[in-house]
Amino acid sequence: MTIVDSPERRQLRELTRAFVTREVLPHLDDWERAGEVPRSLHETAAKIGLLGIGFPESVGGSGGDLLDSIVVTEEIIRSGGSSGLVAALFTHGIALPHMVAAGNDDLIDRYVRPTLAGTMIGALAITEPDGGSDVAGIRTFALLDGDHYVVNGSKTYITSGLRADFVTTAVCTVLPGSGALSLLVIEKGTPGFTVGRRLEKLGWHCSDTAELSFVDVRVPVANRIGPEDTGFLAIMQQFATERLSLATQAYATAQRCVELATRWCRDRSTFGRPLASRQLVQHRLAEMHTRAESARAYVHDVAARVARPLQLGASTAASRPGAVAGQPVVTEVAMAKNVAVAACDWVVDQALQLHGGFGYLRDAEVERHYRDARILGIGGGTTEIMNAIIAKGMGL
């Protein structure tokens, strides 16, 4: 029995698998072509307790912790869903944690509870057109004017940006690019707030992505999350769970592709023999399986420590050869993400190759995973940014 294989989490897996089989698989291809999932899916997931996993019951969630969220993410993909579906349905996983952590009852009642009930959709807006991973360089500016902020700027690559009822938005509250950030909840329909065009993407087709524009948008001070100029720290503190979610999507996608490729190679015959009977194919599948399972084990190990009290990370990292004393567990989260993404990239490529011409068709599930996998080394901090974090953890 592993950390994600307790009796309770087995039940959670069964619940998730049943949800995917009943509510997702009959419609996923249609959602891929429509470019979004229906709002009703959020309500359905909320009613059975999946949408609120990982959020405390005191704010309207279903309870559980990071490991429970990992179980749900993993099982959605292993059951035939996709990382794009996870991104679309669980965008609140990056839109709400800052509000929950700040503990503002008003914001929790207005945004957190309805979102976890499936009646609202939230998004997180950090990335800007002229800067990706440079969070400190954000230029969207919020000028305090009485009991409102006046916001000007733009955001891009915003997941669920088209469907979102509100956007947790990173703004600069001193000077543009100064790094003095705050987080504001900006509602759709606020004058001056424009949701731009739908961005067409290589993958994650069922997850809508948009550009956002803010022109003299007046946002009540009451919509600020936490004290002014504490947004940068709040964003950094939540990156660990976002990156572990992406790592989970990566290794789970790899596992699913191993299953698909193994099934295909058993059923597909060439020159009078099943593909799976050939030693070359057997060794290829064995290597795919090994990489996927190794990534899973490492991500679980890191996630288990992130789920413990935050202080544990410093002592854990400091005990590693070459680590800097006090360097938080963010270093190992970066390594876990890179390890899982590398495994996923290689495995999905091999899986599609083993499928031959069929793997190149939209009818093949492995084709969708091939496209969806490419974003995992970009979102939540690129592979190169992760390497920079790792190097810093080594004292370089």
UniProtKB/TrEMBL annotation:
Keywords: FAD, Flavoprotein, Oxidoreductase
InterPro entries (UniProt xref): Acyl-CoA_DH_CS, Acyl-CoA_Oxase/DH_mid-dom, Acyl-CoA_Oxase/DH_mid-dom_sf, AcylCo_DH-like_C, AcylCo_DH/oxidase_C, AcylCoA_DH/ox_N, AcylCoA_DH/ox_N_sf, AcylCoA_DH/oxidase_NM_dom_sf
Residues covered by the Acyl-CoA oxidase/dehydrogenase middle domain: 123-217
Cofactor(s) for this UniProt protein: FAD
One Pfam family from the record: Acyl-CoA_dh_N
Domain Acyl-CoA dehydrogenase/oxidase N-terminal positions: 6-118
Acyl-CoA dehydrogenase/oxidase C-terminal domain location: 230-394
Signal peptide start and end residues: none
PANTHER family listed in its UniProt record: ACYL-COA DEHYDROGENASE, ISOVALERYL-COA DEHYDROGENASE, MITOCHONDRIAL-RELATED
Family the UniProt entry places it in: Belongs to the acyl-CoA dehydrogenase family.
Protein name: Acyl-CoA dehydrogenase family protein
